[in-house]
Amino acid sequence: MTSDPRELRRVLDGRWADVRAEVRAQLGELRLTPEADLSTEEYRALTTENLRRLAESGRPHQGFDPAYGGGGDVGGVVTAFAALGYGDLSLLVKAGVQWGLFGGAVQVLGTSRHHDKYLRSIMDGDLLGCFAMTETGHGSDVQHLRTTATYDPATQEFEIHTPDVGARKDYIGNAARDGRMAVVFAQLITGGVSHGVHALLVPIRSEDGTALPGVTIGDCGRKAGLNGVDNGRLSFDHVRVPRENLLNHFADVAEDGTYSSPITSASRRFFTMLGTLVRGRISVAGGAGAATQKALALAIRYGATRRQFADPESGEEVVVLDYLVHQRKLLPALATTYALHFAQADLVSEMHDLQSFDAEPGSNVETEAGQRDLETRAAGIKAMATWHATATIQTCREACGGAGYLAENLLPQLKADTDVFTTFEGDNTVLLQLVAKTLLSDYGRRVGKLDVVGKARFAADLMAGSMAERTGLRAVVRRGDLRDRAYQRWLLVEREEHLLAAAARRMRKALAPGADRFAVFNGAQDHLLVAARAHVDRIVLDSFAAAVNRVESPALRGLLEQVRGLYALSVIEGDRAFFVEHGYISRGRAKAVTQAVNTLCGQLRPQARTLVDGFGIPEAWLDCPLLDGERDSHAAPTDPSPSQEEPTDLAAVG
Amino acid sequence: MTSDPRELRRVLDGRWADVRAEVRAQLGELRLTPEADLSTEEYRALTTENLRRLAESGRPHQGFDPAYGGGGDVGGVVTAFAALGYGDLSLLVKAGVQWGLFGGAVQVLGTSRHHDKYLRSIMDGDLLGCFAMTETGHGSDVQHLRTTATYDPATQEFEIHTPDVGARKDYIGNAARDGRMAVVFAQLITGGVSHGVHALLVPIRSEDGTALPGVTIGDCGRKAGLNGVDNGRLSFDHVRVPRENLLNHFADVAEDGTYSSPITSASRRFFTMLGTLVRGRISVAGGAGAATQKALALAIRYGATRRQFADPESGEEVVVLDYLVHQRKLLPALATTYALHFAQADLVSEMHDLQSFDAEPGSNVETEAGQRDLETRAAGIKAMATWHATATIQTCREACGGAGYLAENLLPQLKADTDVFTTFEGDNTVLLQLVAKTLLSDYGRRVGKLDVVGKARFAADLMAGSMAERTGLRAVVRRGDLRDRAYQRWLLVEREEHLLAAAARRMRKALAPGADRFAVFNGAQDHLLVAARAHVDRIVLDSFAAAVNRVESPALRGLLEQVRGLYALSVIEGDRAFFVEHGYISRGRAKAVTQAVNTLCGQLRPQARTLVDGFGIPEAWLDCPLLDGERDSHAAPTDPSPSQEEPTDLAAVG
């Protein structure tokens, strides 16, 4: 039985289905990215033109404070932003810079004096701006940026200065061509004391586009992709801005230079500011998801019609997606894409509910814990989703052979444009370390809260874990059906807990007197990353399972449960060395995992087309010569291939 | 102790050291590929200009028959070709099309009538040509191409025809802009009988560049990379060429249309013809190697000076290559690059010794067996080397963060240009299936040659293997030091043999009466690919070990032995699930593998710069802003970092 892709799309569309429908319609109004040979300048001009069209649509306004003409729909605007990934990723990133990063910083780090003055023109796209955080010398460790903002009470101005080339703002979107103003992150110094990194509004260009005095603007030039975005470099030579240009939601400087902030710790203050900008990270994960879906739609539709090599029995050429190795390339990647889609939807919902426009920062513990959880999830999902995008788009390109290498078939641009997602808005490796750090401190807190009996039991468990690891024996090896949802989850939970407990044991060594803390941390770094990945795999699986549970139609629920199973089993297969080494599954069972993945691939093969159609990518955005064969083969009597017509028992697995 | 990179370079340069030295000097004479924003047409024109410079250098002549003014140095020319990968990959591919594929086909498939007429002008670059094999509908299964060459005895001509759009020649280098002639692969029909695919010389453009009557030329347009190469499409509408245009080394058609060939089987004849073209595949593997080396040189040199995040003890910022996770990204990849370099060198040597200019085709069994071995090795190494290139260049890009995404820093072009290597000159997945097929039939032959006692013992071994697999118990688990060379090899050999025996057992099912052969083959496809990979890993390790043995300096041998060990252990680590599942190593031992890789990474860290300098990539070809920090940091008192100065005991491992 084949499910209706429209029914599937309703499930995938979820809470912001109306926004998605609107964006699908809107995409048609933009001038598409060319497969043609645009120069960098031409492509930048086209992207700016499309950005203005977006502004006219009123869609970007939806993410801002209703008090200033915004729609207050943070989740909707992030959803819409990600859906641009079906179309043109340069536009997505340029829009993200303008409204997400620049506008977002003014909104959340600024106060009414900034909102009154700038929000309207930012929303309308009349004031184009930059988010100038990264420096040439500091990309990941942004707490140690070296640009300075020194307050001068005599003139009531801040002096923005770039002390050396390493402190130059680098890779800044909107800087090379269009930006008129920048939110500049700098070490705030007043009365000779540094209070850490703060954000200030700094005009960089005049109306006519020339750099303002003291501002040097460079161009990052051609990039691997995203060439519609004008990334540039900014240096400041004692540039002065009024005191009021400090975005003072979290801290302020009085006329006489007195510094004040409700958050006393400089480090905590900085990370609180950063935390409010989590929207950018979430949006990148969403954009990566859309691009991955598009690549899979292309490769799977091509694979379902392309034929190569004859079946020795029938003499007829075989549809390449009927080959097991082709299924293995594409279908587990498709299942993971589904899983990440639902995890992303949950993340956006959580963010939306948390970032209402009336909450005060850090005002209650519940919000703080929620914010912390949101940041951790966002970091983890961003890392996994963007690496998944890079790997999957690459696989899709290869699965289309030479045709996949031609620009006209869209895959090259998807690949080139998404590549930087793994290292911008937080380098993935650094983000996973962040996740691990939070998991470890939560773990420490859990242990700390235990009573005496609980602590003893906990210590015994730890010891037993350590013993089991040394002996390879585990007291309780749970037996279960590999296709069983609860058993799959048990494996993922056990792995996460195991890795975390072991990491905690290793970290404790750093506390020993005379320990070389750097050596301990460094030696455990790969372990921590593995633990963080295990955590993200598990929360992604939970989101998927919850989404399946919400589906009412039994046939559709059955189909999605198979996809969920394929995701879970392919995660388990990918790390089966862990499960066997630590005695969670037996050697024989581990080999059965591969067989179970193969079986599920075969079972889902006839539904592959339906599953990609469910993404609801507008047909015009998939139109390319690669899919010409589809039209031809639909006319031919030999298609659909026998296996596509074969009925599948949706309940067979899971 | 730090080794001298020049000494290392002599080892890496090997048999064709003089050719490498010459190419290094020659690269400076070419106009480099621009980081600038060239249009497709500008880049094509530049590449053609560089191609002519190459021709003037006389270097391409070295690969051709001395009887026609060539140098007869096949190995040298392939080595030189690959070294172009340090410079511009478009030029490498364009040169490969002109002299390797087009010229090579005329040389090995043609006879004196073609050599006399064309070889000189091909060598000189006066006659630019295409290698027109791939069709839109047939890329991997080239035995079933659909272009026809029908002989007409009345006019003593062949009529070349494209029956439909699927039979159009596609992705053909030199076709869109420069080619004047093409070697066209077509089904040869004479007297109403088809004799399979043969190659014919077909003029496609007049001197002034216009398409000849009946020839339709299309342009593949912009691609993900290699935009200096003019890939295009060729269709033929009953185009007539003289009988003499058949490249008739392996088969001929007499004036009256009588077909003759020393090789009676049409299939064997076709694969013999293809086999002579193995040089292209070997050259791609070499080019991938050069590009990978360049990417690693950039990322490792950057990583050895870039600092990020402070050490909690010293407060000093840490050089990123001192972080374990950064080492794990780059150093095992570097070790694999070394391993593939030596395997490639052996492959080129083998080819050179086999393809002398006086051997007759298929004239003796030894040559035939040698050719077969060469083709299998070439297929396997091409697949592994190009996938390794794609993965490693991606990792290097990410390891350089945002800077790695800028065109000025060279990594984007390396990545985009090499991407298609995994699917051209043979799709990697199809190539590994080819390797597996040969391994299986060799295996069958080994079994077939055994006497009665041998067969019984063999059957018992198989049974025992199967038992061990079911029970997870293995009679002899060899114990050894993970750092021991012999033990590492034992593991790789056992894996290869095990996977092959198991594959043979599965394949036997296809022989059962009534078996669904397609289903059996298809179900075992992933297993076969794993077996092929295991084989290639082992032969690559053997090449590396042999290369280490040839080194005379103890210090250098010690260093290379560490690198070899890192390669071996990272292969074992990557497939440790296999080794544990099948009882080759214990659970505890498997975890020790990861620790051993970490330890080796730390030990090789201080030698990382030396190891990339050993590739001898001309400094001018690495010059980019990414490495500006090197100059700065060399001036700074804090560099070299303490760990770089630390002496390493080269004998500590291995």
Structural account:
Chains A, B: Its cofactor is FAD. Chains A, B: Residues 498-626 form the Acyl-CoA oxidase C-terminal domain. Chains A, B: Residues 628-654 are annotated as: Disordered. Chains A, B: It comes from Pseudonocardia xinjiangensis. The first copy, chain A, is an alpha+beta fold and 654 residues long. Among the domains of chain A are: 130-266, Butyryl-CoA Dehydrogenase, subunit A, domain 2; 430-645, Butyryl-CoA Dehydrogenase, subunit A, domain 3 (Up-down Bundle). Chain A has 22 helices and 13 strands. In chain A, the strands form four sheets. In chain A, strands 1, 2, 3, 5, 6 and 9 form a six-stranded mixed β-sheet that branches. A three-stranded antiparallel β-sheet of chain A has the order 4-8-7, with no helix packed on it. Chain A is globular. Mean pLDDT of chain A is 90; it is low at 634-654. Chains A and B meet through strand 12, helix 9, helix 10, helix 11 and helix 15 of A and strand 12, helix 9, helix 10, helix 11 and helix 15 of B.
